[in-house]
Amino acid sequence: MRVAAVVAAGLIATVSGRVTFAAFTLTTQNTNNTVSAGTVVVADNDAGSAMWDVSNQLPSSPAIVRCIRVTYSGSLPAEVRLFTPASPSALDPYLNITVEKGSMPPASTFPSCVGFTPDTTISPTATLQAFKATRTVWATGIPAFPGAQSAWNAGDTLVYRFTLAVQNVFAAQGLTGLAAFTWEAQNR
């Protein structure tokens, strides 16, 4: 019965608001926490123009030689790869392509290769057909890095020199080759 009386007194005190509690309190804060995602940004100097638009090319004509500068400005180190998502075209089996990486003076203009200094051949001479068949997405693309680096960093540039020549094959007459090249940067 005594327990019941104590419980009853506690309930009455709680309902009437007569119970008081005392405590010391203190808080601390950690504010202004932010997270920013890094970036991968790659661009070229073609200003939306094609590297080549050549007609009436002969097997005896000088090779088509064009350069394009690729610049990386992302905040994260990245791997940049070259590939072509383009569909096959009729001249592909008879058009030889070679791709080199290197450097050029900063003032050089697209698609000129004046002053190009080769570093490495990143795609030895093969047909455009073979290039398109094997280099279709980033995973199968050709990795190339500035100098001896193993990643691209903000401010890095690399110049790619493309050399194309029509094979001396009768079947190539009157055919057209079409190519589109993509440089994609990924941070992995």
Give a written overview of the molecule.
The chain is α+β, with helices and mostly antiparallel strands and 188 residues long. The protein has one domain (42-186). 12% of the residues lie in helices and 29% in strands. It contains two helices and eight strands, in the order αβββββαβββ. Strands 1-2-7-4-5 form a five-stranded antiparallel β-sheet. The chain has a three-stranded antiparallel β-sheet with strand order 6-3-8, with no helix packed on it.
List the helices and strands and how they pair.
Elements: H1 2-16, E1 42-44, E2 64-72, E3 79-83, E4 95-103, E5 117-127, H2 128-134, E6 142-143, E7 157-166, E8 182-186
Antiparallel strand pairs: 1-2, 2-7, 3-6, 3-8, 4-5, 4-7
Helical region count? Answer: 2
User: What's the average pLDDT?
Assistant: 90
Low-confidence stretches: none
Beta-strand portion reads 25-35%
Number of domains: 1
Q: What is the total tally of β strands?
A: 8
SSE ordering: HEEEEEHEEE
Largest sheet, in brief, is: 5 strands, antiparallel
What is the strand arrangement across the widest sheet? 1-2-7-4-5
Query: Which structural category fits the helices and strands?
Result: alpha+beta
Instruction: State the end-to-end distance.
Output: 74 Å
Radius of gyration: 33 Å
Give the overall form.
elongated
Share of helix, binned: 10-25%
